[in-house]
TrEMBL record:
Keywords, sorted A to Z: Magnesium, Metal-binding, Methyltransferase, S-adenosyl-L-methionine, Transferase, tRNA processing
InterPro entries named in the record: Cation-dep_OMT, SAM-dependent_MTases_sf, SAM_O-MeTrfase, TrmR_methyltr
Record's protein name: tRNA 5-hydroxyuridine methyltransferase
Annotated residues for binding of Mg(2+): 128, 154-155
E.C. numbers: 2.1.1.-
Biological processes annotated in GO: tRNA methylation
Any GO MF annotation of the entry: O-methyltransferase activity
Organism: Lysinibacillus odysseyi 34hs-1 = NBRC 100172
Residues reported in the UniProt entry to bind S-adenosyl-L-methionine: 34, 64, 81, 109-110, 128
Length: 210
């Protein structure tokens, strides 16, 4: 662990046994969940924003949905995941939590499912799914966010790959990184959003709708 990460973690509050179990499960089964510094920063921004309806793209095992629900007692969360095995694990974990009644899991491809049936609008959208599809996710779900709402996008740094020349990126990941860089350029120039990059966790992009 780098010294900077160790220092950041001194500010992180103790977590429940269930959350620690989920973190261990994710590590053992190679399931990507948000880094501790990233989820802490996201939750603090959400506490400031105070959204009551949150849409999450990419449930994985339900860790970030649970963390957001715990941080925001008045918020309801709809979270989308296409991997059936991860959906099963997410449901099992969330059912054991105190926030199960405020989290709705939708199984399916986020580019195909319709979530308007749950809420007509969302104060916040959190995108943490297929990195090469970020622009498509943004274009599909940003219309559900009203003026003053926020889209939070994780993994913008991609463990350092986004900072490399494309020739230095492993060949199998080049298309994803190209798409991610194209999305970054597009969203930073988008006239309807004020966007900023936060160098926490694996890189968090914050897009405030004007």
């Amino acid at each position: 662990m780098e010294l900077s990460d160790a220092y950041i973690e001194t500010f992180i509050q103790p977590r429940s046994e269930l959350l620690l179990e989920m973190e261990q499960f994710a590590a053992e089964h190679h399931v990507p969940i948000m880094q501790l510094s990233g989820i802490e920063a996201l939750n603090q921004l959400l506490r400031i924003q105070k959204p009551t309806r949150i849409l999450e793209i990419g449930t994985a095992i339900g860790y970030s949905a649970m963390r957001m629900a715990l941080a925001l007692p008045d918020a309801k969360i709809v979270t989308i995941e296409r991997d059936a095995e991860r959906v099963a694990h997410a449901r099992a974990f969330i059912e054991r939590s105190e926030v199960a009644d405020r989290i709705t899991i939708v199984e399916g491809d986020a580019l195909e499912v319709e979530v308007g049936q749950f809420h007509a609008a969302y104060d916040a959208v959190f995108i943490d799914a297929a990195k090469g599809q970020y622009q498509k996710f943004f274009e599909k779900y940003s219309p559900l966010v009203p003026s003053g709402g926020v889209l939070y996008i994780d993994n913008m740094y991609m463990h350092g790959l986004s900072d490399l020349d494309i020739k230095e990126v492993p060949r199998r990941k080049r298309t994803m990184i190209r798409n991610l860089k194209t999305f970054t350029d597009w969203v930073m120039q988008h006239p309807d959003y004020t966007s900023a990059f936060f160098p926490v966790g694996d890189g968090l992009l914050i897009c405030l709708k004007r």
